C-alpha cells in the first residue's frame, strides 16, 4: 500500500537544490517517487514501506537542508506504569505525519514531533483519550510561522547589510572620481580606507551572508554546486582577494593589489534584497490557498451537557452535536438533526441562491448559515472536510511538476557545474592573454560569470506560474488536481463529452405538456396525481413539473398499471389513461395531428406519451433529460478555440444524435458500453490526438483515467472525481472553456519565464566573461552582475503573478449545481 508524505523544507534557493533533495529522498528504501517544489518549499514523497518519516527527514538534513517539524508537550493524567507509557506511544505513533513520540511517566507528559498540517492538537488529544487516558490543556511549543520568521530575518539582514554597504560604496567612489579621491586622501591614506572597508564588509560577508556559506558548503560537500555555491565563491573571491591586497600587497603584480570590498558587500546585499523580494512574491503566489483557509471557521458551538459551548475548531471530533446560529459559518461537515434554514453554498457550488436545509440534509464546513438555527452532528472534521479536501487538491497540483519543469530540473543539474568550468576557463584565458594588470581582469570576469549565472530564475519559472494559476482556477471553480494537467490541457486538440449528467442535467424533466382538450393546469393536476402513484423516473418528472407550478394533487383510486403500455386510474370523478401510442390505439382513442407532434418530440430526444380523460385525448406529454444551461455556449466556445468536440454515450443512436444536433456536435459515439469508453479514448489517441474526456459517473472513471486529461464534473460521483485530473466544481461545461483558457495562458507564461531565464544566462554569460572588451572596452562589474541576477528572479516571479489578473472567457456561475434543476416549459398547444 502506497502513501504520500508532504514535508516542508527550508534553505532551498534554486533548481539545483531541488535536484539534490529529490536525489537524496529517491535513494531511501521504499520511496517510489519524490517531487520537490521550489516555490512552495515542499517535498511530496510517494512511498510503500521501507522508509519512515524520520528517515526521510534525516535524508533532507544530510543533503544540507532543514525540514520543518512541529513539536508539542502535552500533560497526561491517569498513567501509572510502563505499560501505560507504551499504550499511549503506540496510539500516537499511528497518527499521520508523526515523527517522534516520547511519553515520560515521571513528568506525566507526552512529547510529540510531527509534520505541519498532518495532525491537529485535537486529534492528538482524541488519540490519548481513546487509549484510556486524559490529556490536559497545554501551551503550544510549535515554532512561530516559518515564512513570517524568514521574512523578518531577511528584512533585518538586508537592512544591516545596506547600512554597512553604503559607506563602503562611498569610499569606493574615490577610485573613479578624482576630486573625491583627493578628499579621502587628505583625511587618511588609501590603505587606511581599505581597512575601514574591511571592517564594514566583514559583518556583511559573514553575518548577513551566512546563509550562502551554509548552503554553499552543503552543496560543495555533496559535489552538487548550486546558487549558494556561486554566490559564496564569487563574493568570497572578492573579499579574500581584497584582504590579501590589504595585508600582503607585495605578493601581487604591480597595479593589481586593489580592493574589491565594495563588490563583495554589494553582491551579498543585492542578492539578499532579491531574496526578500522573492519571499514577498512567493507569499502572493499562494493567495488562493490563504483565501480558502480563511473560509474555515475558527470556533464551533458544541452541545455538551445540554448547553452550547464555544470551542476551538481543532477540538471538534466526529459525532459532536453542533449548533449553527443565523449568520455563522458552518464549522465542519455534518448531517442536520434539528432546525430549518437556508445555507449559502456558493463557495462550493457557485449557486447564488441559498439551499434549504432541514433534518437529514448534509451541510458543508465553510458555508454560511443564513436565517435559521441548525443543530447537526459532525461527520467530517479537520483534514477530512470538503473544504480541506479542496485545499489539498490545490496544494497537490501546486506541488506536482509538469513535464517542462522536469526537463528544466535536468538542465539545471548540469548548468551550475558547467558555469564553474566556464568561470575557470575565463580566469585562465584572461590571466594568460589579458592586458595588464591581467590578474585584476581575470578576477573581475570570473566573479561576474559566477554571479550572472545563478539559476534561481530557472528554478522559479514553472512552480510560481503553477501556484498562481491553480490558485486562480480554484477561485473560478476549476480545481486542477494535477499540476501536469495545466500543461497538457493547453495542448489538447479533441474534447470528448459524456452525455448524461455532463451535457444534460442527469435526470428526466417535464419539458412539454401540450393540452388538446381542457384547461391546462387542471389536466396537468389530474395527470400528475396518477403519475404520483408510480415510481418510474418519467412519472417522477411529471410530478415535479406539477408541483413546481404549485398544483395540489387530488386523491387517486382504482390505480392499475400495464407494463409496456400505460396506467389508468380514477381521479376527481374522471377516468384517466396515460401511456404510449400503442396504448391509445388499443383503447380506440384517436391521435390525429397529435401523433405528428409526438414524432417531432421524439426526434428532439424527448420521450412522448399521451393522456386521455374520460376516453378523449387530452394532452401530449414529453419528458427528457434537458441540456444543462451553458452547454451550447461552452461547445461553441471550445470550437472557436480550434478544438474538435465529440460526444461519447451509452444512449441509443437516435437520442444521441438529437442531443448532438441541439448543441452543435458533429462527431458522436453512441451505444458505447461502460467498459468500452476507455477503448474509444484509446482509439482517438491512436489517431495522434491529445484527448480530454469530460464525465461525471462511475462508468466514466476508466475513460477519465485513460484520457490525456480527465475532466470530472464536481457534482458527479466521488469515483469520477478521483479519476479526473481537473474538477469542475460548479458542474457547468463553461468551466471547461475557462480551464482551457487558463491552461493556455499559464503555458505561455511558463514559456516566457524560461525564455527570459535561459535567454538571460545565454546572453549575459559571454558579456560577463568579457567578450565585449576587445571591441568596446567594457567589462561587466560583479556588482552589476549580482543586480542583474536578482532582477531576473524578480522578473520571473512578477510575470507569473500576472496570472492573478486572469478573467474567465465566459461566465459559468449559473445556478446549476445546488437545489432543484429548473423544470422545462409547460404550455398549451
Q: How would you sum up this structure in a few lines?
A:
This protein is of the alpha+beta class and 829 residues long. Helices cover 49% and strands 19% of the residues. It has a seven-stranded mixed beta sheet with strand order 18-30-29-28-19-26-27, with helices on both faces. A six-stranded antiparallel beta sheet has the order 10-9-11-17-12-15, with no helix packed on it.
SSE layout:
Layout lengths: L2 E8 L4 H12 L4 E7 L4 E6 L5 H10 L3 E2 L2 E8 L4 H12 L4 E7 L4 E6 L6 H10 L3 E2 L10 H27 L5 H10 L2 H19 L1 H12 L5 H21 L13 H25 L1 H8 L4 E6 L2 E6 L8 E4 L8 E7 L1 E4 L1 H4 L5 E3 L4 E2 L4 E2 L4 E7 L5 H14 L3 H31 L4 H15 L3 H20 L2 E3 L2 H7 L4 E5 H5 L5 E7 L4 H12 L5 H12 L7 E7 L3 E6 L2 E6 L1 H7 L6 H10 L3 E7 L2 E9 L6 H10 L3 E5 L4 H11 L3 E3 L7 H10 L4 E5 L5 H6 L2 E5 L4 H6 L2 E3 L5 H36 L3 H4 L5 H20 L28
Parallel strand pairs: 19-26, 19-28, 26-27, 28-29, 29-30
Antiparallel strand pairs: 1-3, 1-4, 2-3, 5-7, 5-8, 6-7, 9-10, 9-11, 11-17, 12-15, 12-17, 13-14, 13-16, 18-30, 20-25, 21-22, 22-23, 23-24, 24-25
Which key phrases capture this entry?
829 residues, alpha+beta, Alpha-Beta Plaits, Calcium-transporting ATPase, cytoplasmic transduction domain A, seven-stranded mixed β-sheet, elongated
Task: Tell me what you see in this structure.
The chain is α+β, with helices and mostly antiparallel strands and about 850 residues long. Among the domains are: about 5-65, Alpha-Beta Plaits (2-Layer Sandwich), CATH 3.30.70.100; about 70-140, Alpha-Beta Plaits (2-Layer Sandwich); about 315-380, Calcium-transporting ATPase, cytoplasmic transduction domain A; about 480-505 and about 625-740, Rossmann fold (3-Layer(aba) Sandwich), CATH 3.40.50; about 510-625, Calcium-transporting ATPase, cytoplasmic domain N, CATH 3.40.1110.10. The longest helix is centred in the last third of the chain and has 36 residues, at about 735-770. The chain starts with a strand and ends in a 28-residue tail after the last helix. Residues about 140-145 and about 815-829 have low confidence and may be disordered.
Amino acid at each position: 500500500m502506497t502513501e504520500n508524505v508532504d514535508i516542508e523544507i527550508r534553505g532551498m534557493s534554486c533548481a539545483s537544490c531541488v535536484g539534490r533533495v529529490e536525489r537524496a529522498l529517491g535513494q531511501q528504501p521504499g520511496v517510489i517517487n519524490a517531487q520537490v517544489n521550489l516555490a512552495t518549499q515542499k517535498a511530496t514523497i510517494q512511498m510503500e514501506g521501507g522508509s519512515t518519516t524520520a528517515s526521510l527527514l534525516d535524508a533532507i538534513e544530510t543533503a544540507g537542508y532543514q525540514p520543518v517539524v512541529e513539536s508539542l508537550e502535552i500533560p497526561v493524567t491517569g498513567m501509572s506504569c510502563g505499560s501505560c507509557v507504551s499504550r499511549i506511544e503506540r496510539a500516537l505513533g499511528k497518527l499521520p505525519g508523526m515523527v517522534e513520540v516520547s511519553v515520560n511517566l515521571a513528568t506525566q507528559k507526552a512529547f510529540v514531533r510531527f509534520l505541519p498540517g498532518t495532525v491537529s492538537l485535537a486529534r492528538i488529544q482524541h488519540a490519548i483519550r481513546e487509549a484510556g487516558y486524559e490529556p490536559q490543556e497545554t501551551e503550544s511549543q510549535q515554532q512561530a510561522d516559518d515564512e513570517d520568521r524568514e521574512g523578518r530575518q531577511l528584512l533585518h539582514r538586508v537592512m544591516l547589510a545596506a547600512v554597512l554597504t553604503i559607506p563602503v560604496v562611498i569610499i569606493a567612489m574615490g577610485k573613479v572620481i578624482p576630486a573625491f579621491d583627493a578628499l579621502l586622501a587628505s583625511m587618511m591614506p588609501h590603505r587606511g580606507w581599505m581597512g575601514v572597508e574591511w571592517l564594514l564588509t566583514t559583518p556583511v560577508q559573514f553575518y548577513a551572508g551566512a546563509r550562502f556559506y551554509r548552503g554553499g558548503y552543503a552543496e560543495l560537500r555533496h559535489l552538487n554546486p548550486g546558487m549558494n555555491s556561486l554566490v559564496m565563491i564569487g563574493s568570497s573571491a572578492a573579499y579574500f582577494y581584497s584582504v590579501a591586497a590589504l595585508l600582503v600587497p607585495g605578493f601581487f603584480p604591480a597595479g593589481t593589489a586593489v580592493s574589491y570590498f565594495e563588490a563583495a558587500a554589494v553582491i551579498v546585499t543585492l542578492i539578499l534584497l532579491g531574496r526578500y523580494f522573492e519571499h514577498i512574491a512567493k507569499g502572493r503566489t499562494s493567495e488562493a490557498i490563504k483565501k480558502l483557509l480563511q473560509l474555515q471557521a475558527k470556533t464551533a458551538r458544541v452541545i455538551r451537557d445540554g448547553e452550547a459551548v464555544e470551542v476551538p475548531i481543532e477540538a471538534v471530533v466526529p459525532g459532536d452535536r453542533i449548533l449553527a446560529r443565523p449568520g455563522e459559518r458552518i464549522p465542519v461537515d455534518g448531517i442536520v438533526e434539528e432546525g430549518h434554514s437556508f445555507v449559502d453554498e456558493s463557495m462550493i457550488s457557485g449557486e447564488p441562491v441559498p439551499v434549504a436545509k432541514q433534518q437529514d440534509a448534509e451541510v458543508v464546513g465553510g458555508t454560511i448559515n443564513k436565517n435559521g438555527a441548525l443543530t447537526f452532528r459532525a461527520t467530517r472534521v479537520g483534514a477530512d472536510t470538503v473544504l480541506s479536501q479542496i485545499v489539498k487538491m490545490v496544494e497537490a497540483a501546486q506541488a506536482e511538476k509538469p513535464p517542462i519543469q522536469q526537463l528544466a530540473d535536468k538542465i539545471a543539474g548540469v548548468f551550475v557545474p558547467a558555469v564553474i568550468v566556464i568561470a575557470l576557463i575565463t580566469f585562465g584565458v584572461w590571466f594568460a592573454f589579458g592586458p595588464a594588470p591581467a590578474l585584476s581582469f581575470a578576477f573581475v570576469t570570473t566573479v561576474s560569470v559566477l554571479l550572472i549565472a545563478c539559476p534561481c530564475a530557472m528554478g522559479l519559472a514553472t512552480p510560481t506560474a503553477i501556484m498562481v494559476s491553480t490558485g486562480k482556477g480554484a477561485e473560478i471553480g476549476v480545481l486542477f488536481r494535477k499540476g501536469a494537467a495545466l500543461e497538457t490541457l493547453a495542448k489538447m486538440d479533441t474534447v470528448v463529452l459524456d452525455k448524461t449528467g455532463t451535457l444534460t442535467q442527469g435526470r428526466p424533466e417535464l419539458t412539454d405538456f401540450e393540452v388538446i382538450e381542457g384547461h391546462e393546469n387542471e389536466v396537468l393536476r389530474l395527470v400528475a396525481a396518477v403519475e404520483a402513484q408510480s415510481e418510474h423516473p418519467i412519472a417522477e418528472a411529471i410530478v415535479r413539473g406539477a408541483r413546481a407550478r404549485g398544483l395540489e394533487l387530488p386523491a387517486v383510486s382504482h390505480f392499475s398499471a400495464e407494463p409496456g403500455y400505460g396506467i389508468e386510474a380514477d381521479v376527481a370523478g374522471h377516468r384517466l389513461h396515460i401511456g404510449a401510442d400503442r396504448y391509445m390505439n388499443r383503447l380506440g382513442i384517436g391521435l390525429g395531428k397529435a401523433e405528428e407532434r409526438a414524432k417531432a418530440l421524439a426526434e428532439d430526444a424527448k420521450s412522448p406519451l399521451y393522456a386521455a380523460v374520460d376516453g378523449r385525448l387530452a394532452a401530449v406529454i414529453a419528458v427528457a433529460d434537458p441540456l444543462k444551461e451553458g452547454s451550447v455556449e461552452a461547445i461553441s466556445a471550445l470550437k472557436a478555440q480550434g478544438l474538435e468536440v465529440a460526444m461519447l454515450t451509452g444512449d441509443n443512436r437516435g437520442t444521441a444524435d438529437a442531443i448532438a444536433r441541439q448543441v452543435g456536435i458533429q462527431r458522436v459515439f453512441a451505444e458505447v458500453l461502460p467498459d468500452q469508453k476507455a477503448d474509444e479514448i484509446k482509439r482517438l489517441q491512436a489517431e495522434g490526438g491529445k484527448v480530454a474526456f469530460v464525465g461525471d459517473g462511475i462508468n466514466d472513471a476508466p475513460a477519465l483515467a485513460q484520457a490525456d486529461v480527465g475532466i470530472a464534473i464536481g457534482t458527479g460521483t466521488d469515483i469520477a472525481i478521483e479519476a479526473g485530473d481537473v474538477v469542475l466544481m460548479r458542474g457547468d461545461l463553461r468551466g471547461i472553456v475557462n480551464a482551457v483558457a487558463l491552461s493556455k495562458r499559464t503555458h505561455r507564461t511558463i514559456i516566457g519565464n524560461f525564455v527570459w531565464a535561459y535567454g538571460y544566462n545565454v546572453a549575459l554569460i559571454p558579456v560577463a566573461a568579457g567578450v565585449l572588451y576587445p571591441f568596446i572596452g567594457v567589462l561587466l562589474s560583479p556588482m552589476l552582475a549580482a543586480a542583474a541576477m536578482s532582477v531576473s528572479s524578480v522578473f520571473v516571479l512578477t510575470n507569473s503573478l500576472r496570472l492573478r489578473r486572469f478573467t474567465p472567457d465566459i461566465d459559468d456561475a449559473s445556478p446549476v449545481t445546488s437545489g432543484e434543476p429548473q423544470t422545462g416549459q409547460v404550455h398549451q398547444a
